[in-house]
Amino acid sequence: MDKIKISGGRRLQGKIAIGGAKNAALPLMAASLLTDDTLSLSNLPHLDDITSMAKLLTQHGVSLHLNGHAPNGGHTGRVLDMRAKEIVSTTAPYDLVRKMRASVLVLGPLVARCGVARVSLPGGCAIGNRPVDLHLKALEAMGAEIILTEGYIEARAPEGLKGGHILFPQVTVGGTENALMAASLADGVTVIANAAREPEIIDLAHCLVAMGAEIDGIGTDTLKVTGKPRLHGAEYSVVPDRIETGTYAIAAAITGGEIELTGTRIDLVEALIDVMRMAGVVVEATDTGMIVRGNRATLKGVDVMTEPFPGFPTDMQAQFMALMAVANGASMITETIFENRFMHVPELSRMGTDINVHGRSAIVRGVSKLSGAEVMATDLRASVSMVLAGLAAEGETVISRVYHLDRGYERLEEKLAACGAQIERVKG
Length: 428
Ligand code: EPZ
Description:
The chain has helices spanning 22-30, 48-60, 94-97, 107-114, 133-141, 173-184, 199-210, 242-254, 270-278, 317-324, 344-349, 380-392, 403-408, 412-417, and strands at 3-7, 13-17, 38-44, 63-69, 78-83, 91-92, 116-120, 145-149, 152-156, 165-167, 189-193, 214-216, 222-226, 234-237, 258-262, 282-286, 289-293, 304-305, 330-334, 354-358, 361-365, 374-376, 396-400, 422-426. The chain is of the alpha/beta class. The chain is elongated, with a radius of gyration of 21 Å. Helix 1 packs parallel to helix 7 (199-210), helix 4 runs parallel beside helix 6 (173-184) and helix 8 runs parallel beside helix 10. The strands form six sheets. A four-stranded mixed sheet has the order 22-23-1-24. Strand 20 (354-358) and strand 21 (361-365) form a beta hairpin. The termini are close together. Bound molecules: ligand EPZ. Ligand EPZ is lined by residues 23, 26, 102, 128-135, 170, 172-175, 200, 314-315, 337-338, 380-381, 408. Ligand EPZ binds at residues 23, 26, 102, 128-135, 170, 172-175, 200, 314-315, 337-338, 380-381, 408.
């Protein structure tokens, strides 16, 4: 298994191009199942999770064609044409779903288009139980009959889905996405209340509208979808990755460096930028993104709590913790979205951090220096928090289980090395 080796302690300086968002691209790809026309996505990132979704779609009968590079800088973003002319299988098998939970996003589109779907239950994962009960309740509200059998979700709506009223008791990104896609082909009007408002949901809604869907309230927590008998093809560009943006913003801050992030938008990361500024990091908006400037001497601890968008994202919690680990003073970081998302704490402590977890909160007492160590990642964002700590640490850090990083960060070593990081992948 590959490892990442970092010789830390270098101030990073340079430019990083941000790619399309993984978490937007995955539901957008699933949306290709809603039409027999071609859906063409540009600014698609080159990531293992995208490959997993492509494999899943292929086995459902979608033909895929990858068209080189998108215009954005020439080196990030690809264009993928997807055509689900005929759905040859309505089953999403365990083997593919277990590798990537987002596979469950094919459930809504399949049952909406074919009247039947059989999708493996994803099971737990490193950051929590992550049930999909709310996805299922949403489909039931649209008239689907659902049974759980032999580890599979079986959904049926032989007469087609009907418009319904969905009230999510808790904000769910994936649940909102499944509901939105299914409602677009349902007969009648569906109201989705307490809907997630993440930029990835807005992206999906805009793409569905480009495909002929009628959706009111985009960007709010109440979405009204007037179902259409059919959707058509469209060309759509994936929104920039706000988590990749935030991660490299922290790379600049934690190394006391200066990095210009291009191909992104500051409004996607407002909650993060607010707390980074409170911590003493300078962030300036530019036409194509932002410039982030850090100063370790004046970096201070600030408290954050993860919340659904527009709050502070759970997907930035581990990276922000790495930053707070070297700040002056203490910071309390509270995780409210996932029950088990502090798995990076014991690994970071191997690098000399001073962090205590009490239930859903972690008290991070800043230390003046970190030291390189061998560490192991448990999930995507945990892994990258170790990369960030490694960039700031004295000496060598070796991170194993790099496959987590490859799921969500495109050419990570290359992008950081271009800013002066000493980082390499060791094949194993
Ligand atoms: C999405 O996961 C993202 N994944 C996650 O990113 C992200 O952390 C999460 O949203 C929150 O922002 C993708 O977009 C592919 P949820 P999702 O449904 O949709 C509970 C990363 O690192 N819940 O909003 O699975 C759930 O357990 C990943 O890129 C139910 O109880 O998240 C969690 O506590 C990790 N029942 C909370 O809701 C349900 O049916 C929010 O989950 C659904 C969710």
